[in-house]
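[step 3/7] fold_predict: job queued, chain A
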Amino acid sequence: MDIILTLTECRILGSLVEKEMTTPDYYPLSLNGLLNACNQKSNRQPVLTLGEDEIVEALDRLRHSGLAMQSREGGRVAKFCHTIREKLHLDEMELAILAELLLRGAQTLGELRSRADRMAKLDSLEATETALCELIDRDFPLAVKLPRQAGHKECRYMHL
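[step 4/7] structure written:
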């Protein structure tokens, strides 16, 4: 079950999860809403300038792999949602941490705790580390602990 995602696909999935958890009234997202979420300048690393065509192509690939789908909710505009929670059997903390890793790349434990806390309550660094270990220790790991870099006192974690 190796899933290889492009930068655009990572950004789409991270954005869908983030918006579901932080602004549920506006979720699922329209194509325009998803475009704005992906190109958002805050809480993103790197900042991207994706076009609608790139989003549509990446969404098609994600839908084909079962990680995203068009919402069944009625309306004039097609809306999209992720299926990561169900497909990968993630709890709220794991989902929030994975979303932050998808949106910002490698981060320290403290950075992950403070940033993911807006999506799911992370009571302590230990709770954050436990959730990260769950992502790392799976049969098909979703995250990895990177070696400590010279000049840095903490290890960083990255999504796989």
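[step 5/7] annotate
The chain is about 50% helix and 10% strand.
The chain has a mean pLDDT of 93.
exit 0
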